[in-house]
Design a protein that fits this description.
binds adenosine-5'-triphosphate, five-stranded mixed sheet, binds fe (ii) ion, 350 residues
Length: 350
């Protein structure tokens, strides 16, 4: 089976093509950039403008025509409603015109499963760090369960918010990574609450220092502080579940410093760490196509609709082998808690 996946939830319009064996045939996309951030109707207009071209590009890269496609999948949410409509309508029209089955899938779940496919990790703790989301998850009892998450904004959006104020444009994450390479540490608030994290106060504190402290120092310190928080909760999640794999996914997984810190922590815990390859870290159509394959081949059928607020833990994960995940959360209560994980690692890594 060959599946074509359409992504349109936010800044990216993407079309990816994959086989049911997981062979990636094409990954075409066009991203919206701006100075101010995302203005929904402008992003929608961007997607309308580029959609045909992105589709043609994907088909051409895969050396296929629509006749070769067996299934069309699209991101039905979560995301910006005007953008979701562009993807849904485009997918629906293609499905009708070429008489192909159509399946809507969850964008966030697709971020997780493309991580499994591209790294080979089977049953990891997932650290999903993107624009909107910052979550620790594990597959257990037929769902992805949220072990911890941001109490306010996702880290990507937090960095973008700071970057906008600092004049770095949107998206700011990659530019902040560049700036940070020559920066030095200044203290910022550090906010871990059990398994949850909070970024809003840290960003406000950093914004107040714009113009008073060199920008590279602020970028460096924001990265060190926020990434140390993520390493702390990820370590605690590994300890409590006794999992031996950590998988970093989402757009912020492009950041080399975050990868370095999580790799060092995992090594100390003798856990296997992998980050989704850069090409599949941010939004793209391949992850939607792969999620389409997983769900369609396990019997899921839907009527096309958009779900702007659908959460990751609402989706049944019947494609995951129950035996490999059923013990995820059940095994630890009788075991002694891991002391190391309960100790707070408050000082940012340097
Ligand atoms: P979600 O998946 O939660 O719906 P999204 O789709 O908007 O959110 P992604 O495309 O997965 O998010 O990620 C985009 C985010 O990744 C942006 O906020 C961007 O600034 C951030 N980002 C991209 N590259 C880097 C980098 N090198 N360092 C830090 N952040 C980065
Ligand atoms: Fe995303």
């Amino acid at each position: 089976m060959i599946c074509l996946g359409i992504e349109s939830t936010a800044h990216t319009f993407g079309v990816g093509i994959i086989t049911s064996e997981g062979k990636i045939l094409a990954n075409a996309r066009d991203c919206y950039h701006s100075v101010e951030g995302m203005i929904p109707n402008e992003v929608k207009a961007h997607h309308e403008l580029v959609k045909e071209h992105v589709l043609a590009d994907a088909l051409q890269k895969a050396q296929l025509t629509m006749n070769d496609i067996d299934l069309i999948a699209f991101s039905h949410g979560p995301g910006l409603a005007p953008c979701l409509h562009v993807g849904k309508n485009f997918a629906e029209n293609l499905s009708k015109e070429h008489n192909k089955p159509l399946l809507g899938v969850n964008h966030c779940v697709a971020h997780l499963t493309i991580g499994n496919l591209t790294t080979g990790l089977q049953d990891p703790i997932y650290l999903y760090v993107s624009g909107v989301n910052t979550q620790l998850l594990v597959a257990a009892h037929g769902r992805f369960r949220v072990l911890g998450e941001t109490l306010d904004i996702g880290l990507g959006n937090a960095l973008d918010k700071f970057g906008r104020k600092a004049g770095l444009g949107f998206p700011a994450g990659p530019k902040m990574e560049q700036q940070a390479s020559t920066g030095a540490y200044v203290e910022l608030p550090y906010a871990v609450k059990g398994m949850d994290v909070s970024f809003a106060g840290i960003i406000t504190a950093a914004e107040r220092k714009i113009g008073k402290i060199p920008l590279p120092d602020l970028c460096f310190s924001l990265q060190e502080t926020c990434f140390a928080m993520l390493a702390e909760v990820a370590e605690r999640a590994l300890a409590h579940t006794r999992k031996k794999e950590l998988l970093l996914i989402g757009g912020v997984a492009a950041n080399k410093r975050l990868i370095q810190m999580l790799a060092a922590m995992s090594k100390e815990r003798v856990a296997t760490f992998a980050a989704v390859p850069l090409e599949y870290a941010g939004d793209q159509g391949v992850m939607i196509a792969w999620q389409g394959v997983l769900e369609y081949s396990h019997g899921r059928r839907t009527t096309p609709d958009i779900h702007p607020y659908e959460r990751t833990d609402e989706i049944d994960t019947n494609w995951i082998n129950a035996s490999s995940t059923s013990s995820s959360l059940a095994s630890s209560p009788q075991e002694p808690p891991d002391k190391k994980a309960q100790k707070s690692a408050r000082s940012p890594c340097k």
